[in-house]
Amino acid sequence: MNRIAKDHLPFNRRNLLRSVGGGFGMLSLAGLLQATESGRVQPHFAPKAKRVIFLFMNGGPFQCDLFDPKPDLNRFAGQKPAGTDLRTERPTGNLMGVPFKFARHGESGVEVSELLPHTAKCIDDICVLRSLYTDNPNHGPALFMMTSGSLTPSRPTLGAWLSYGLGTENDNLPGFVVLCPGRPVRFAELWSNGFLPGEHQGTYINHSQLDPKQMIPFLNNSKLSPEAQWKQLELMRELNAMHLQQNRAEPHLEARIRAMEVAYRMQLEASEAFDITREPASMRELYGKGDFANGCLLARRLAERGVRFTQVYYGNGQPWDTHSNHTASTRKLCQDIDQPIAALLTDLKQRGMLDDTLVVWGGEFGRTPTTENADGRDHNPWGFTMWMAGGGVRGGMTYGATDEFGFRSIEDKVHVHDLHATILHLMGFDHAKLTYRHAGRDYRLTDLYGRVVQEVIHG
Amino acid sequence: MIGGKPIELKVDTNRRRTLYGLVRRRELSDLLRLNDVPDPLTHSPSRSLTTTPLQQLFVLNSPFMQQQADALVARLHREAPESDRARLELAYRLLVNRTASEKELELGLQFVKDSPTEAWSQYAQVLLGSNEFLFVD
After folding, report:
1. Considering chain A, what percentage of its residues have pLDDT values greater than 90?
2. Chain B residue closest in CA terms to A251
């Protein structure tokens, strides 16, 4: 090997970028080489959260049904007052009232609708962000914005950035996992590694089948017993070691030898981690039935085992996208998510994990208070609700506000970039400094934007 | 054959270069995706090189590797029917273009003697999955 390609340099690219970006100047070469050995990158400052579980309500839920009560919406139902003709994906009609009652809950007294009674019990741990907004009313661009900070595809997604910045806590499992009982719209683009190295892409798992062998590609060997495979591995080890003797300068060879060991262990560990039938009946009952319940329980198991970022999509396609039959559909959707959300938060809390696990909930946008098709609601990028819990977030509060009909965010607005900046901050990163050089410039998740919402962070 | 229609990568009859493989942008083939195929939605100046456990799961467990191992074994038996030793020597000639060392022959003979039925297929898979074969020098 005469020429060494740039990726074969004996120091870690991430560490190089980190040290320069951090303004400390170049570390000594010896220092860099040492940092390379572990392969782990340090956060910019002490993180509050070590892992993220993102509950993604694909299709876009309507905030005024759930966390953002608007009495004026019912007062003026059937009318089209000034300010309610904001342009969304399609033309909408008059205001449509919300038949769900709100009540104050917990010690904090934050209002939650009757559709989410279990979740309401956990409200003191939840920070409701009422003033989200995004830049495009269509699913594609909005999904990309929520997952990767850009309206157009092929940028690295949030999970990929965290994997790139932090690595994984457990080598024997993928660090970025995506669970969906089907295929969300845009599919693999939503967990893409973009221009980051391929190892940071999300591992997609369709968890509608509960057998782990069906979930992870090539997890198990259909022909060989573990013992037979162990013998194979031993032979492989010997041959590779002999080969390595003559090729000492090649880091990839050793990396692959290690990766082979990990893969072998991963078969066992992933088979165990992804198997929710190993949970006691009491746990299964706590979370309830259904794909979303199973997804939340799986997410907790993965979080326990060091998976850095787990995204749980509610369903196949975009089930929250209620352009028609909105009210009846919303009842059903909330029934599906309410118990599992409360179970997840309670479960994490009981295991002492809520403090360093950041749970995020929301969709790619919200829905309009005005009606579509007389019984539906259109997409609403102007204002919607998300919430965060755990991981250093202050619970039992609301942040920001929409106008009197819940259409547009008007106070303490939180753009998706701001949400991303805040998530990265909680995970220990300055969002402006977690960068990667591509196509001649430094890229970051928040592009040129983003403000950390300090007001929702503990201490 | 140069030019012409693209072909599904996974199909058994595919003997063409990957350049002619059909790419579904949202559903990349597992083999390509695991091995850092650049995002087909955008330009890529070069391919990043990663080494991940998920790639090795493919090597250890995929039907593709099993089929290739079986095909190799069939060929070895066809072209070197005389003895295990001859087959091992041929395997090294074919895969890494050199004479196997005594140590390597010893390891190979030991392995295939331990469980005669599936052993050759498993051995072939080890060779096909080894660093020396998979990394281009």
Report:
1. 71
2. B51
